Amino acid sequence: DAGVIQSPRHEVTEMGQEVTLRCKPISGHNSLFWYRQTMMRGLELLIYFNNNVPIDDSGMPEDRFSAKMPNASFSTLKIQPSEPRDSAVYFCASSLVRTTNTEAFFGQGTRLTVV
Amino acid sequence: KNQVEQSPQSLIILEGKNCTLQCNYTVSPFSNLRWYKQDTGRGPVSLTIMTFSENTKSNGRYTATLDADTKQSSLHITASQLSDSASYICVVTAQYNNNDMRFGAGTRLTVKP
Q: Which of B46, B47, B98 to mutate to test the interface with A (most CBs of A within 10 A)?
């Protein structure tokens, strides 16, 4: 398996523009997570899905952020409108929740710069 | 307040030397504790995982210890290599919800020749 695939790897956009980040989880995994990582705050959970259903979105910073998972093999994180403070690395991770030793596998991340 | 605290924030050591990274947590009850390694520009990769009943787990030159009574864990790296330069993140999973992972801020390790 190719692992968790994220696109694009890098995104530079102007303030006010819409940004869409994409994620393809590992085939067969039933949980998907979106994280944001900054130097100041480290890794922060934004939202996670279980069997394509959003379970906890309490980490989504505000209404400008939205996430969807239309099927088991694809998810998007959208920011509209984007702001400079959204600049960060966004990670997608997936896992197969079945035991206490569930491991989350991370993608390579999308580095977002909003100017 | 973060429920997973790591120290030191950063560390510089010479190649070949050993080092120990610390993780203190308040997540309770917890299911497991995992150490991740994150190379620059990449996603975190799991190094070790321990359940609350385990005291130690090794993965090559990496050895993790866990004291569930004091809620402390350490990651010991033996005979460091330049490729060990990375951030090391301690992650505690809450019991009853395997999706509830609490991340530490990480320790940035630099190994110099």
A: B98
Q: Which residues of B touch A (CB under 8 A)?
A: 31-32, 34, 41-46, 49, 51, 89, 93, 98-99, 101, 103-106
d(CA B7, CA A114): 31
Nearest to B24 by CA among B56, B66, B64, B57: B66
- Residue count (chain A): 115
pLDDT digits (tens, 9 = 90+) for B40-72: 989 999 999 998 889 999 999 999 999 999 999
Burial class (CB in 10 A: 0-12, 13-18, 19+), A34: buried
Q: Helix (H, G, I), strand (E, B), or coil: what is residue B49?
A: strand
* Mean pLDDT, residues A92-102: 79
A10-14, A30-34, A57-61, A92-96: range with lowest mean pLDDT: A57-61
Strand residues in chain A grouped as ranges (E)? 5-7, 10-13, 19-24, 31-38, 42-50, 53-56, 65-71, 74-79, 88-95, 105-106, 110-114
Say if CB B8 and CB B110 are below 8 A apart: no
